[in-house]
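Input structure tokens:
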């Protein structure tokens, strides 16, 4: 019989799995946005993209739970979304960076229509801690 995994091994296993899911999620969502020629109003980007990331994870694996934490608007068309999450073995944080583009010559405002250009999602390995 195999020995049970240590706390450190459980955390590493959780990180490896969540890291794989983040890459898959970013690829799937960006592909969906491209195929549908998806448009976002700049003021609604954080709420819409964070909601879609959470729904994707919920649909993909119900054992990985996410909640939206905060947003930093790095540039007028670039957003960094922060999430808190957990698996049965670990708590963690992750970030998603969404880059959008607007039609050249368009004035930048919250109501400006923009199109997704990049989406990267990553889990912070240092933030993974064993659940109590």
């Amino acid at each position: 019989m195999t020995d049970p995994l240590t706390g450190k091994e459980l955390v590493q296993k959780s990180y490896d799995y969540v890291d794989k899911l983040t890459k898959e999620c970013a690829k799937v969502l960006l592909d969906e946005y491209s195929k549908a020629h998806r448009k976002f109003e700049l003021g609604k980007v954080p709420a819409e993209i964070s909601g879609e990331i959470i729904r994707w994870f919920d649909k993909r694996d119900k054992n990985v739970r996410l909640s939206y934490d905060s947003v930093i608007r790095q540039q007028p068309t670039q957003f960094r979304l922060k999430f808190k999450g957990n698996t049965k073995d670990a708590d963690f944080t992750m970030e998603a960076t969404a880059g959008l583009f607007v039609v050249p010559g368009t004035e930048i405002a919250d109501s400006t229509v923009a199109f997704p250009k990049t989406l990267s999602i990553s889990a912070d390995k240092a933030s993974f801690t064993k659940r109590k």
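The mean pLDDT is 93. The longest strand covers residues 90-101.
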